[in-house]
Amino acid sequence: MRITLAQVDSLLGDIDANLERAHEAVAAAVEESSDLVVFPELHLSGYSIGDVDADLSMRPDDARIEKLARHAGPAGILLGFVDSGPDGPHTYNSMALYQDGRLVHVHRKLYLPAYAPFEERNHFTPGPTMRAFPVAPNTRMAVLLCNDAWQPQLAFLATQDGARVLLVPAASAQSRFPEHYDSHEYWHDITHFYGRMFQVYVVFVNRVGAEGQLHFWGGSHIIDPWGNVVAETSQGDEQLLTVDIDLAEVRRRRRQVPLVKEARLGLLQREIGRLLEEGGDL
To answer: How many whole angstroms from its chain centre is CA 173?
Structure first.
């Protein structure tokens, strides 16, 4: 399978300009016969939507997004946007995957940061479900949207639901606390761990550019089921990187070291039920 990491910038509040940049990236990926193009978190709106007066929300079936999906032809695209959701009062931070011009899956971010400067809980509702989904050619994938990836139970659930590739779009900015951790190193720790322990490919796509005090650093990369770096972009600059991965490597790795086949879901259900009865987080 051939995947393009679209490490691109966004213009805050300018959906049309961001769609145009997405069209350019998709055209370049199609020229390279890419099977899937992965964009960063909230590419179509920019990240700091609280700084914009206009309503930036869109439905997954918005005609402008569907036009972009058709432009990709048989290739899939994973695109981030402010999601007005089904009928109701909620707005979501979402990624939608389209293939052959059709909507395949919408992932609505599950764990929203509620600390400065990433105060997403002020603007979005947490999503309701974690699901893997089919992607041609003949595999299953799942999305962990930025802060979702800091919750390892989600990677576990995605793997047990059949995902062989974890797609991790992000809008990660340089740390406000560099004395405690380096953002680039921290993300590598997470993606290496998931690749090695859940025996999947991990596709991390971060944006670049700046919005106010936020400086997005890029560093997009792919990790294989052994926990090794397959390829990585530069830090700080826009870059399209197209990479071939061998999906059969997931099965080979899991045969050699069977870490994920015995999840013991019944055990987990019992223990989670006990924790809830004892006053755990509902």
So the answer is: 15
